């Protein structure tokens, strides 16, 4: 994709976001002012600070949640709006708790504002979202397109672009060396030698070039040939054989750059900061609420078997940094210089430990790892250092899963890829899910994983 086209797309997305965001901020701040004058009588400095924090805090949170993205349907859009609003309220409450200013606010004002604030945002979201999708559909329907290339990536692109709100893709144009059957989803319109006639006859306005890097000479020739055809040319490299990590397209000093492998920390620093603040706040709340359970389990471990309450093991954290991960001890004290993965009916596991592992209660001390910033609530599960050394080189892109903080739970856990990995194939499937999480990460995905995790705790693969 050319930098000019990328810039235009981002500009349109920016207008969609900022327009709806501005309308939402005006409404919720106006609502807050009305409620304050109704209950308090004057807009004190605390409420003015709350309005400012709401405006500035909503930008990274709503942006990370893709609240106003035209791709989402009405219900999904409202769900993302609700999730973004709840995260924003959680951050505001955490700030008030830390600064000890919560007592200065009227509870009735805050409760009504929290509920009515979402309702007024939803009221403005409905017409504006519909208008944005209508305009996008109108523009897309006017843009007739073709795809040059017949590889699996081209077929996947065609399937995605034939969905609503996308350009009208009329078919494929094959290269001269095409072998095998043509894609079935759309008709084959001809060969690249006929491209000028095809574009003119069918009034094409956009051409997607989906060819492998090995055909760079053909890509350049096509681009030069189409310069005077009054069509948009979008190049989508066929990188299907490569394991990409958080890929993106950008510019470096006005030069087009395709990021094949980038960490979330460098590409989404604002979003990762919001994730970190949200998860640490949730960890503090969880530790407080679960403190009776944590204390009870610690006493039970101490009474039922000799040894320490906590088991601390070196594991790889973000970017391969070695951290000590905390767990309730579930095994008898033994020589652990050679780390052996737990198996079903492992005789090292104590009776209490079997229950703790079965219910995943043994993982709860990792909330302190989250609080200390070593782990996240959601992310790839950390493996023992010796296991990482064993699998590196045997499982494709294994260490790429360490490009962000490891988590207490993750996408692999809720999709059934947990427990013993006695074969390389099982570990490859787990790693594939971890990489999917890195590539698809969003606050919304984190929330879905957190919600689904309790329903996976009784899996038969936990032991």
Q: Distance N terminus to C terminus?
A: 48 Å
Strand content: 5-15%
Q: Care to count the β-strands?
A: 11
Question: How many structural domains can be distinguished in the coordinates?
Answer: 3
**Rg, Cα atoms, Å:** 27 Å
Strand order of the largest sheet: 3-2-1-4-5
Taken from the alpha-carbon principal axes, the silhouette is: flat
Helix proportion range: 40-55%
Summarize the main sheet: 5 strands, parallel
Description:
This protein is α/β, with parallel strands linked by helices and 463 residues long. The protein contains 15 helices and eleven strands. The chain has three domains: 3-139, no CATH class; 142-241, Rossmann fold (3-Layer(aba) Sandwich); 267-456, no CATH class. It has helices spanning 3-39, 45-64, 74-99, 107-141, 152-161, 195-201, 216-225, 264-267, 269-304, 351-359, 366-371, 385-391, 411-414, 424-440, 443-452, and strands at residues 144-148, 168-174, 188-191, 206-209, 232-235, 248-252, 255-259, 310-316, 322-328, 376-378, 407-409. A hairpin with a 2-residue loop joins strand 6 (248-252) and strand 7. Helix 1 (3-39) packs antiparallel against helix 2, helix 1 runs antiparallel to helix 4 (107-141) and helix 2 (45-64) packs across helix 3 (74-99). The radius of gyration is 27 Å and the shape is flat. The model is unreliable at 1-14 (pLDDT under 50).
What labels would you give this structure?
15 helices; single chain; flat; 463 residues; two-stranded antiparallel sheet; Rossmann fold; alpha/beta
Short note summarizing the structure:
The protein is flat and about 80 Å long. By secondary structure, the chain is α/β, with parallel strands linked by helices. The chain has helices spanning 3-39, 45-64, 74-99, 107-141, 152-161, 195-201, 216-225, 264-267, 269-304, 351-359, 366-371, 385-391, 411-414, 424-440, 443-452, and strands at residues 144-148, 168-174, 188-191, 206-209, 232-235, 248-252, 255-259, 310-316, 322-328, 376-378, 407-409.
């Amino acid at each position: 994709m050319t930098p000019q086209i990328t810039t235009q797309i981002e500009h349109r997305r920016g207008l969609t976001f900022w327009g709806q965001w501005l309308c939402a901020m005006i409404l919720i701040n106006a609502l807050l002012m009305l409620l304050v004058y109704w209950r308090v009588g004057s807009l004190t400095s605390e409420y003015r600070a709350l309005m400012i924090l709401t405006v500035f805090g909503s930008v990274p949170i709503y942006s990370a949640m893709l609240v106003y993205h035209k791709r989402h349907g009405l219900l999904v859009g409202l769900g993302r709006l609700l999730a973004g609003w709840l995260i924003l309220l959680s951050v505001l409450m955490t700030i008030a708790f830390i600064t000890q200013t919560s007592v200065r606010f009227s509870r009735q004002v805050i409760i009504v504002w929290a509920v009515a604030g979402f309702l007024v945002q939803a009221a403005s979201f409905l017409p504006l979202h519909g208008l944005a999708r209508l305009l996008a559909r109108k523009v897309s329907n006017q843009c007739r397109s073709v795809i040059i290339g017949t590889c699996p990536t081209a077929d996947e692109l065609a399937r995605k672009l034939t969905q609503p709100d996308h350009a009208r893709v009329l078919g494929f144009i094959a290269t001269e060396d095409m072998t095998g059957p043509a894609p079935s989803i759309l008709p084959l319109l001809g060969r690249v030698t006929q491209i000028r006639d095809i574009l003119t006859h069918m009034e094409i306005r956009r051409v997607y070039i989906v060819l492998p890097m090995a055909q760079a000479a053909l890509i350049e020739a096509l681009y030069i040939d189409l310069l005077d055809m009054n069509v948009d040319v979008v190049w989508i490299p066929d990188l299907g054989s490569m394991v990409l990590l958080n890929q993106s397209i950008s510019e470096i000093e006005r030069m087009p750059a395709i990021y094949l492998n980038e960490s979330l920390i460098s590409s989404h620093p604002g979003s990762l900061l919001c994730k970190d603040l949200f998860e640490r706040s949730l960890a503090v709340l969880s530790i407080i609420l679960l403190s009776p359970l944590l204390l009870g389990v610690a006493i039970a471990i101490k009474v039922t078997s000799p040894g320490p309450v906590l088991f601390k093991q070196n594991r790889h954290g973000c970017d391969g940094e070695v951290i000590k991960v905390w767990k309730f001890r579930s095994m008898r004290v033994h020589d652990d210089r050679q780390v052996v993965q737990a198996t079903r009916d492992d005789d090292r596991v104590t009776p209490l430990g079997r229950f703790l592992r079965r219910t995943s209660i043994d993982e709860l001390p990792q909330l302190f790892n989250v609080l200390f910033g070593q782990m996240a609530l959601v992310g790839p599960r950390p493996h023992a250092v010796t296991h990482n050394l064993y699998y590196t080189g045997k499982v494709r892109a294994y260490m790429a899963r360490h490009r962000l903080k490891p988590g207490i739970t993750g996408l692999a856990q809720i999709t059934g890829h947990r427990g013993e990995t006695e074969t390389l194939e099982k570990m490859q499937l787990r790693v594939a899910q971890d990489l999917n999480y890195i590539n698809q990460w969003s606050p919304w995905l984190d929330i879905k994983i957190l919600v689904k995790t309790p329903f996976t705790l009784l899996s038969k693969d936990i032991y």
